[in-house]
Amino acid sequence: MNICVIGSGYVGLVTGSCFANCGNNVTCLDIDKNRIKSLKKGKIDIYEPGLSDIVERNFNAKRLKFTTNYKEAIENAEIIFLAVSTPPNSDGSANLDYIKNATMELSKYINNYKIIVTKSTVPIGTTYLIKNLIKSQTDKEFDVASNPEFLKEGSAINDFMFPDRIVIGTHNTKANNIIKSLYEPIIKKGTKYLNTSRKCAELIKYASNGFLATKISYINEIANLCEKINVNVEDVSIGIGLDQRIGSRFLRPGPAYGGSCFPKDTRAILATAKKFNTNLSIIKSTVKSNEQRHKILLDKISKILNNKIKKKRITFLGVTFKPNTDDMRESPSLKLIPKLHKSGAIISYYDPSGEKIDFKKYKNVNFVNKISNACKNSDLIILHTEWNEFKNLNFKRLVKKRNFLIYDMRNIYSHKKMISNNLNYFGIGR
Ligand code: UDX
Ligand code: UDX
């Protein structure tokens, strides 16, 4: 099939390259000329494991093309995916300007029957808005459907090729059959295919992320209680996770959830609920709990440093919102590091994905490109992101100072082992 994906960011590029990998002819379009220029040279500015290989392979096989030219991309396409940014407005609602711009632009080039599919996370009812916009521009036959993405950064290719489910929102049989045949190579491997209404598909995405975010805030608050009653939250997490109705995943306590989706999508569904005069009190408290979590962690840091943060040398191992990505969007470190810097700490950080522009403005916050150099003079080591290379460190060899402390915000290490090695070790919920 001939596909066009508008928006060649994380989601658009994964979507386009994976569809090409299934044998389709795909054109990835973007308004960012530089991004398209570097993609044409096989350069990807996105840190996503496996993405550059799959792009290169399909680009060389001429199944994957890149362009900024709407006419060429739309006229040849049977299905057009919208994967452009939907950033939050100040009130948390999703900004649809890019979706509208892309829709008006593509409408000009509908030369035969096409299906326009929203891949970006869009507020409930956006597919109707898109349909009306296109209808105002052309009398050609077309359909609009919703096909939300459930890609996790760091495992996006695998999540695309082996999803738990494919959700297609359209009650138009012809459109549903065409989209289903596009996903055939994935469905025949056993993935569940759910056809529903467009609004339901749009809500499924928000409701999924809202629930996953709630699971995380839930276990984070249980962890707070565990610290007070001296119970290991990991045992609680295993104990409740064995219940099939709860499930063991997304029950790991941490410094707060971050990323480009959970924070944005939870705020967006709250804005939608407000618009429909509905109170989603559970997601509201999930968001509040997550946004306040850094205060609890900073209190703990202050306590373990005997309230003496000034001039203390603190090392962050990892600053991204999760491992295997360079994405800093709403990472907990963006709140923790500036606050500790303000309290007079001298901060070094190491992250496998490299130096971060976010911290350049702070005098005493420095990127160090080797773990050993980042740790050797530390008073406190904070394990912020669970990158694999932090999982087997010999701290006694790494840190020259005596009585240094370790705050493991991801419970990477065994509490028992660390204490038995006479390390001043603190975890989350343990
Ligand atoms: C995007 C949405 O932000 C997210 O809500 C949705 O779930 C999936 O698509 P992501 O791919 O991470 O997520 O966004 P981003 O990495 O910012 O890429 C968006 C791309 O769209 C950028 O390359 C941008 O240049 C491009 N774009 C934006 C267009 O091509 N046209 C536009 O009008 C606006
Ligand atoms: C999420 C959803 O998982 C995905 O389905 C959706 O399409 C996009 O948003 P992503 O944000 O890429 O994916 O990462 P995810 O692995 O979900 O982690 C999100 C945040 O939750 C990270 O900050 C992570 O550290 C945190 N997290 C995750 C926890 O704190 N505990 C957990 O058990 C799992």
Structural write-up:
- The chain is 42% helix and 14% strand.
- It is an alpha/beta fold and 430 residues long.
- The strands form 3 sheets. It has a 6-stranded parallel β-sheet, sandwiched between helices. It has a 6-stranded parallel β-sheet with strand order 11-10-9-12-13-14.
- The longest helix has 32 residues, at 198-229.
- The protein starts with a strand and ends with a strand.
- The relative contact order is 0.09.
- One uridine-5'-diphosphate-xylopyranose binds at residues 149-153, 209, 212, 216, 250-252, 254, 257-259, 261-262, 321-322.
- Residues 149-153, 209, 212, 216, 250-252, 254, 257-259, 261-262, 321-322 line the site of one uridine-5'-diphosphate-xylopyranose.
Strand content: 5-15%
Mean pLDDT: 97
Bound molecules: uridine-5'-diphosphate-xylopyranose
Strand order of the largest sheet: 3-2-1-4-5-6
- Helices, by number, come to 17
List keywords for this structure.
six-stranded parallel beta sheet, elongated, single chain, 430 residues, 14% strand, alpha/beta, 42% helix, binds uridine-5'-diphosphate-xylopyranose, 17 helices
Please provide a brief summary of the model:
The protein is an alpha/beta fold and 430 residues long. Helices cover 42% and strands 14% of the residues.
Topology:
Layout: E1 2-6, H1 10-21, E2 25-29, H2 33-40, H3 51-60, E3 64-67, H4 70-75, E4 79-82, H5 97-107, E5 114-118, H6 126-135, E6 142-146, H7 156-161, E7 165-169, H8 173-182, H9 184-187, E8 192-196, H10 198-229, H11 233-241, H12 262-275, H13 281-304, E9 313-317, H14 333-342, E10 346-350, E11 365-367, H15 371-375, E12 380-383, H16 395-398, E13 405-408, H17 415-420, E14 424-426
Parallel strand pairs: 1-2, 1-4, 2-3, 4-5, 5-6, 7-8, 9-10, 9-12, 10-11, 12-13, 13-14
The structure holds uridine-5'-diphosphate-xylopyranose (2 copies).
The site of one uridine-5'-diphosphate-xylopyranose (UDX) has 22 residues, from helix 1 and helix 5.
